[in-house]
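Now for a typical sample entry:
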Amino acid sequence: MEFSFVFGCAFHRTLPFINTYWLMTDGGSQRGLSVLYFGNRELSGEPVHAEVIDQAEIVWFGEVAPHFDPANFSARLTGAFIPPETGAYTLGLTSVGRSRLLVDGVVLIDDCDSFPGGSERRITFDAIAGQSYSLQVEYASQDGPHWRNLRIGCIPASPADPIQEAASLAARSDVAIVFAGLTKEWEGEGADRPDMELPGMQAELIEKVAAANPRTIVVISAGSPVSMGWLDQVGAVLQAWYLGQETGHAITDVLFGDTNPSAKLPTTFPRRLQDTPTYINYPGECGKVYYGEGIFVGYRYYDKKDIAPLFPFGFGLSYTSFEYSDLELSAAEYGPGDVVQVRLCIKNTGSRPGKEIVQVYLRDIESSLVRPEKELKAFAKVSLAPGEARVVSLTLDKDALAFYNPEQRIWVVEPGDFEVLVGSSSRDIHLKGRFAWKSQVAGPSQAPV
């Protein structure tokens, strides 16, 4: 078995740090950049401090050097840039403060007028492999934030058309695998994503590769849903999330069939941003967002609005198949102190060992308040050999039947009929049952925390 790899496309929000192996300090004594500090904002007079940095970023928070005013200083970074290959290089400069970048004495980036800064300025220039270019970055602090930053990014020369090169390789291959997704630059706890699109030209990369080879697998590394307008053009999609240091081993084990995937989606993947529960109210007005979904978040919203998701909550495929049968409830009627025992048979009908997550949803048929169409109340993961069948038992107590009444400020279980729905996802229901709850039960007399 032979593997070939090509770089598809870049999608950096900010360019990665310039490789310090391409940088030499003044005099060529070591890798990195020389830094001289001045006790004013004009780079004038004698330097008051000097250092060498081996990473193309400096963050100043508080004291820069002893007896040094962090709000009134400037710095000059100098060194030699020695590219490993001939081609076009893109340099990026980001700063909190005033800055500019020079190559061989020529100003290529001037970011002196954009304080407080934060956005990256970029320039592309042609360089010859092994040739030494004088690199200089000048920085001056400004009034404002208590922290200051200077960052130099760079991406090396790339093929004239990397997407076409990827498509050409795919056309010559039996199977094509495209790795795409997001990074911490594009999603995280500190900000909301503005859309669901794959950044950069990743969607075009997938479409071109799939057009060249329909046997294309797309591996998505992301912590949230992304648009998949290309879904019908590819053979398979593996949602890898962020797996940590064993990512490579885990993905290859699944792709080569050494591990049978058994996970289920913990969220709904919508077809488009307009289908999501928060679309109407986000991003709000005047810095305020109205949370108008109420109890209809996640799959509850899609059920209530009858919106077909791209992939429903609880969805996940396997290299084998499963059959659900023989649903039984322990009784037809229940009351205080009772628990509902849900039993069913699950069978592996395929040729591979596998695991299935049995999901039990509950629908309150006769509630006095508006309720979701169904809610997940129990689940169990079952490991089965080929042809093996097993009885699975799950328990629903009164808490599974309760809902919060905001006017009474209590949790209640109302008498009436309930429907049990057993499935492999919130939209793939295989078995249904029904029981009655015969009396009113009140919960704690305080709002939930």
In short: Residues 445-449 have pLDDT under 50 and may be disordered. The domain at 322-442 is CATH 2.60.40.10 (Immunoglobulin-like). The chain has three domains: 20-155, 162-305, 322-442.
